[in-house]
Every structure is written in C-alpha cells, then in structure tokens.
Design a protein that fits this description.
kinase activity, Uridine kinase, disordered C terminus, five-stranded parallel β-sheet, P-loop_NTPase, transferase, disordered N terminus, alpha/beta, kinase
Length: 217
C-alpha cells in the first residue's frame, strides 16, 4: 500500500470571467467584492516577435489569443489558488509594454475573479487542475458594447483614435462570433444579473466547503 498522502486541494478557486472587450467585465468583477486578477496584464509586449499581425497591415492583432501569454496567466492563477498570493505584471496598453510588477494577495478569500478577453482560453487547464469554480461570458447588445468600449478606450488613451475606431467596428461585426467561441470553450453566456447570481452561488458553496473542512479537521 502506498504511503503517499493524497494531494491537498487548492485553498481557493477561480471564477473565469470573459466576454467581448467592453462587455463590462471589470465593473462586474469590482461589484462582487472579491479579489480580482486582471488577465489583460499578461499581454505580450509590443516588441515580441511572436505577436500576430492584422491581415490588412494595421499592426499587431491585440484581439488574437496569440497576443497573450496564457502560460504565465495560468501559473498566476495556480499560485493564487494554492498559496493565496502571487506577483503579476503591470501592463500599460497605451505603450504595449509591461511597466512594473505588483503583488496580489487573496487575504484568505476562498474565491477570486480572473477577468479578461482571453479568460475562456484557459478554462480547460483550470478545470483539469481542479481550480475552476465557474466560467462566465458576459454578453449584451453589440451596439452597446461598441459604444462603451470606444468611450473607455478614448478616455484612457489606449491607442490612437483612428485605430480604436477601426478596431471597434471590427469587433462590433464579430461580437456574436466572439461570444460563440467563448461558449464553445466552456464559458456560460449570460448578462450581468445572472453572472452576479452565479458568482454569489459559487462563493456560498466555497464558504460552506471551507467551513465543513474546518469542522472535519
């Protein structure tokens, strides 16, 4: 008989929150009151030779999952789930570069949000590792998403205005395809009220589980 003890379950689990750019992921995550990992901070730098390019010669395709370091994002999620803390890059979209590093500590929370437009691309890995509490894809009216995204990107000076308008129109045309892709990868498509309800249910389940484990120990 093996003397090895079973692997300890993770101390926390993650809700992966995805959806088209401008769908309201960041504001929804803030409303939950849970710790939040911003997955957009794992973009590759603008000088990275592996960056995918737009077919029209308009520069890097920042809406392709290949513009993002999925491996580093999963490593950060894993560290948060197992140790409650990790170091994350600080990314400045306006200059397409990492400008620093910051620490993220869950403060004992048993659940946290990891949000970003590529979150669906790591659903399978998080589920296999036993880290996933839920995976959600925010969806709404494409025209509303377009207006919200463009206003935010112009306000924050993320890129030049002509680039942002071209990108916005391209994403407007492809929004339903984006949601369908995230759904196919395992994210549940929903609007904000349902997303908040599912996150609250996951939080309750994890709190109940943590209480039960404490009693058994």
């Amino acid at each position: 008989m093996s003397s090895q003890s079973p692997a300890r379950p993770p101390a926390a689990r993650v809700v992966l929150l995805t959806g088209p750019s401008g769908s309201g992921k960041t504001s929804l995550a803030a409303r939950t009151g849970l710790p939040v990992l911003n997955l957009d901070d794992f973009y590759k730098e603008g000088t990275d030779p592996t960056l995918p390019q737009l077919p029209d010669g308009g520069g890097a395709d920042w809406d392709s999952p290949l513009s993002w370091d999925a491996g580093a994002a999963v490593a950060a999620i894993d560290a948060l789930c197992r140790t409650g803390r990790t170091a994350v890059p600080v990314y400045d979209i306006s200059v397409s570069a990492r400008v620093g590093e910051a620490g993220l500590d869950l403060g004992g929370a048993a659940l946290f949000i990891a949000e970003g437009i590529f979150a669906a691309d790591v659903i399978a890995r998080c589920r296999t590792a036993g880290l996933l509490a839920d995976a959600l894809c925010l969806r709404g009216r494409p025209t509303t998403t377009f207006r919200r995204r463009l206003a935010r990107d112009l306000r924050e000076g993320r890129k030049s205005a002509p680039y942002l308008v071209r990108r916005g129109l391209r994403l407007l045309r492809g929004e339903r395809t984006i949601v369908a892709r995230h759904t196919a990868l395992g994210a549940h498509p929903c609007a904000t009220p349902e997303a908040l309800a599912r996150i609250a249910a996951a939080r309750t389940a994890d709190m109940t589980g943590a209480t039960g484990a404490a009693v058994r120990s």
